[in-house]
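Morning run. Coffee first, then this:
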Amino acid sequence: MDFSNFTDYDREKIVNDMCRMIQCKTVSNIDDSLVDWEEFEKFRALLREIFPNIYSSCEFFRVGKSGIVHKLSGSQGNKGHALVLMAHYDVVPAEKEKWTFEPFAGDVVDGYIRGRGTMDTKGTLCACLEAVEIGLKAGWKPKQDLYLCFSGEEEINGDSCKNIVEWFEEQEISVDFVLDEGGAIVENVFPGVSKPCAMVGTAEKGSVYMDIEIKGNAGHASAPPKHSALGLAAKVICQIEKKACPAALTMPVRQLFKIMSKNNKNPLLKFLFGNLWLTKPLVKLASSLMGGELNALMHTTCAVTMCQGSKAYNVLPSSAVIGLNLRLLGSDSVEKSKARIEKIARKAVGKKAQINLKMVSQNNPSIESKTDCQQWNTLEKVINKTWPDILVSPYLMMACSDSRHYCRITDKVYRFSGMFMSKEDRAMIHGVDERISLETLIETVRFYSNLLVEL
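And here it is:
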């Protein structure tokens, strides 16, 4: 069955539905009192209105604070096994004064739907549901049990997705495939490679938010000590930035380098990344010297993002606080990173200084999902069917997604948004003037339609 050739009615409905989704101001916040929960309920009611075939065919469950789960039973009666298509419907705030249009306009201008959430990630959510709705209307039914799972707390690292995974465990449901937001189809992904590439995240780095507090003696700034608390904090910052973690090659990065070398037109790069057994020390050195994305792919990174001291120019701070964001690679862990940072900090400030480390938020790196399995082969086949003549590669996601929670119950979690994203598009995610082209949205629906047929 093929239901990826959309009628004019289908196209018009897809665009109109997406516009209405964007007009729901589902902005999440760690502080519940600052969340407009009526907008979240408005969004959930909208889904029931615009996807009647799904809601008349599925079992529906509310899970956790904002999780919504739709179950479509498989025709093959494989009870207990599941396929999961997921996304999130909460969005980050938008600074209205910086936008050139209303952030929740949900209008169409010059071939683009405009508004917060178009790229991250109501576009993916809309495309998934539109494909299922059109399929059901055409008589399609999933072979295996299919779950459509959406959270409204992803942007704040909330518990709704974690609660959904716990619900799967309680129901004793075996999950065989998970697809979430993540990589996209990008051009100029690698020096020497001319073909666009679909980047499918098969693992993601861990993330740690950490505060380091350095105690000091408060007083008047006219008679300062040799090092104020903030001065000691500066010494800690310098040492943290100086002492980089050793480089390592995880499996997703090895696979990426292999595909990029195989398709590379630059003989030197083809050799360098295609013979890691020989050139690995050079690649590691290059990543450290170049910094940026190549460095992040091969290192646990630590970014100093915040520093607080006194609130007055003439007052010595009683303490200084440094805010860090670590992205953990592969076999690294929260415990190892905390011990490493504490060792660096204590050495920098000396034995007499008092310091305290506080873990604000923490999660370890995800497991690496399989690529030598039917699920990966199916995903790769569908990508090539939707966008012929592009490369498909695993890669390591440096951002965090809700899908990491599913790694507790399956090793087949894939992170791919199913759309082309230019450098400009990627910059709009969490940025200003976010928008998605009508062509991109329709192609993403086509991708999900092709996927449903193959699953």
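The chain has a mean pLDDT of 94. Good start to the day.
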